[in-house]
Amino acid sequence: MVPLFGLLLVSYFSASKSVEVITRSQSMRDGETVLSARKTYEMGFFSPGSSKMRYLGIWFKKAQPEVVVWVANRENPLENSTGVLRMDEQGRLLLLDKEAGKVVWSTKGFLNTGVRVFAKLLDSGNLEVRDGEKDLPAGLLWQSIDEPSHVMLPGMKMSANRRTGARRHLTSWKSPDDPSPGNYTVEMDFSTLPRVLLKHHQAIKFSTGHFNGYRFVGVPFMQPESVLQCVVRITEDQADYIIQMKIPTISIMTLSYNGVGQRLLYDEGTNVWETFTYLPADECDRFANCGAFSICNMSNFPVCGCLEGYAPRNGDEWDQQNFSSGCVRRTRPDCSGGDGFLLMPLLKLPHLINSTVDIDISLSECRNKCTSDCSCTAYAIANVTDGMGGCITWFGDLLDMRILEMNVQDLYIRVPASSLGKRPPSYQEQ
Questions:
Q1: Which of 132, 147, 162 is the last residue in one of the domains?
Q2: Least buried of 122, 358, 403, 416, by fewest C-beta within 10 Å?
Q3: Bulb-type lectin domain spans which residues (predicted)?
């Protein structure tokens, strides 16, 4: 079992009582909590680790240790135990510092709300503000899953809108004692085809690879498919990534303060969290670990190897296990018929930098497109569903390739004709 990093509710104020809902007449003070119907999740005030600061949060109640899944005032902690959560006349939730006499966090307000507005914690871990005089979805005024913290719950949406630039993403804690926004994010990228990126500040540390209509090309075993389904919904402007459970169990995706993404599954028999996926999982998961035109293979030593027809750009660095400079072609491209395309299965497709996507052409048309452009270094099908269509063409460096344990889809790489039918030393079919 992989340890849980920076997510534990280590120190919290024991609740003196629980309230069912928050209304205009029913508040919640530090020392009180709100429980979901089946007592799966609990909301209250807590102090993480050795910190004495107070935060309003939601945590999974059943398992030990208790994992915090959402924090309201992560940027504005309370310095004492005088915090109160109440609802105002506009239906806003207000977190008050009674001692300082100020609001440290709030939801947005709503006009024309009914008299029966309330906030309720669901067994999904979602905190909802509802207008009881309206049916759903119109009666749903606000929900916590629209403002993710460091944990992705089932039903929560990670999204990117390439027209507006708006993103909904996870942000790590700063440390186990400090849930304020840290240095790592997990976010959707929709600049070309959808993909999920783990970033340290703005530097990519891990990429799932793009979504090919069926799965992310770099993580074929990202989910136990008998337990949950990871759904990607795509419109012209926006891509959404959503977790849906197939069986009545609890699974969450967490981002630790030190940049480890984990998929946790709650074992109801033992009341503990089991980790069945964590990313980056190995050296080959590090983004562009082997540099350009190189393949990472955890079965080999060294793990990095050049493509057939390519050689290390800096042999001295390569001998010292520094592969960041990558590889270069041994010969110049020959666009008069001296080059061909080498089929590479069992491979994570390259990062989509310096690539183009054309959804409306076939694989044979894609090959012709790449063949006719001497700067095209590789091509692949864009979408493997519905008859396998669309085209990705790469120009310039090919980055972030690794050997996979199963074939997600094929890649065709431009190589000298003399290299056709060969495989580089780094390439071993599993």
A1: 147
A2: 358
A3: 19-142
